[in-house]
Amino acid sequence: MGLFACNACRYFFEADALPDTCPNCHLDSVLGSTDSGRRVSFPAVRAATEAEVKAYEEVGKAAQEERDFLEWLDSLSSYDLSNDEYHVALMLLHSFRTTPDLYTKHFTNDLLPAKKGGIEGWNAQAMARILYIDVKKSFTSKINQERQNAGTNDIVKVAAQTPPDSAANVLRRFRQNEITKIFRDPQNLGDIRRVDLEKVVLEPSDGYLRFLTEWYNSMA
Q: So where are the chain's domains?
């Protein structure tokens, strides 16, 4: 399987062998000019260059990472999480979405002994407290940056202008209390500030620990 490019429509595609025509525009040749200015016909399809292959792979990797991230966000509904745990999980997933698995596993592994008690449990709580504070600050900073770039503080509008894996779109997933539901107020920085990190640090539920464990086990 190789990567090929069309000189006519700039379409990149994978195939077992070099085809006669482009599968996108269906052309078999394009007109070009030699150094002397003479017009000649060139095959439309060619093998991709090394640089093009690298760029193609990077785009594919980024797209897969986004799909994996969104699948994890969707999967949170299958865990029995309190609102605070759900919101911390959202921010954790967003914070580590582009972090290599090796580093993510390192941090996640530090959180798992939270209910064991003794020194191991205390260490896990201390690590969780530090990590959650950093993640919350980072998430808030991302929201502010996206609002500034979008030119509006309205999270709904910011989310509409940013990719599905943006902080604004993650914030849109935050659960709301009954009052905000009644008035249909969109999520905002207040929803982030109200997340009780200490409760998640000291009293992680079995459902939350199951999420951490399965997230940890999903990494390479």
A: 2-48, 68-217
> Is pLDDT of 6 > 90?
yes
CB burial of residue 66 (10 Å; 0-12, 13-18, 19+): middle
Q: Could you give the angle at which helices 101-111 and 206-217 cross, rounded to 10 degrees?
A: 150
Q: How far apart are the first and last CA of the chain?
A: 25
CA distance 37 to 35: 5
pLDDT band per the 50, 70, 90 thresholds, residue 180 = low
Contact 158, 169 (CB under 8 A): no
What lies within 8 Å, CB to CB, of 188 at 6+ separation is 153, 155, 171
Q: What predicted TM-score, i.e. pTM, was given to this entire model?
A: 0.75
24-51 residue pLDDT tens: 999 999 987 777 778 888 899 999 999 9
User: Residue 129 is encoded by which pair of tokens?
Assistant: 């407290």
Nearest by Cα to 142 from 106, 166, 126, 123? 166
**Contacts within 8 Å (CB) and 24+ apart, 206-214:** 206/80, 207/79, 207/80, 207/81, 207/85, 208/79, 208/81, 208/82, 208/85, 208/89, 209/112, 209/114, 209/115, 210/79, 211/76, 211/79, 211/81, 211/85, 211/89, 212/108, 212/111, 212/112, 213/112
Q: How many residues does the chain have?
A: 220
